[in-house]
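**Polypeptide and fold**
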Amino acid sequence: MGITSSDVRLLESALRLKDINYVIELGSQNLYLEGCDYQKPPFANEWYESRGIQYMCIDMAGDNNAIKINLSQCWYREDYMIFDLVTDFGTSEHVADVEKFQSTEFHDGHIHSVYPAYEPLENEIAWGYYSVWCNKHNLAKPGGLILSVNPKTGNWPGHGYTYIDSEFYKSLASRCGYTIHHLRENAAMGNTKDGWNIECILEKKSDNAFISFDEFQECQQYRK
């Protein structure tokens, strides 16, 4: 999933909330904006850097100078807890903690198995989704924003492993002490049939450790 015009409006609202100097994205995102070449869309760093924001991204393919980190493992480095903004434009729903096959993360953030017939087990999906959220939490500095755009439950059939609704964010914010600045449903590219996403901007208020796996499972999630 890339960054569309509606995603840019969401980013602009985040920039109005906070002074954003450092951003990190999950997945090396492309820009799908008016005037862009859809056959060869530019990388998202151009948008951020034109606004004076220092950009990094995480992607196992290494596209756009990405950091190669396996998001299905909870990853912690104190020197990386510096980001004013952490973004997840359609990446986390594809993450599963699977060691039974090798995988490559392409620039859209999707997992492509060398054994495509293998389907991750429920617990592998659950641990992968927990870990990617642990990473989002750890990458954001206290006072930083976590911006997410991911499929709403009942939409994007066959697209990813995990689907959520607004209640997920309300429960997560309560448990983690986040402030919700923005939470709404949006039909991606005007697809009102089965293309609804949940948009959310959370503010991390403290440097507390992320919640436990068991607590996280109490936040409403739906599996493929």
Remarks:
- The chain has one domain: 3-223.
- The helical segments are 5-17, 45-49, 122-139, 166-176, 213-217.
- The longest helix spans residues 122-139.
- Residues 100-115 have pLDDT under 50 and may be disordered.
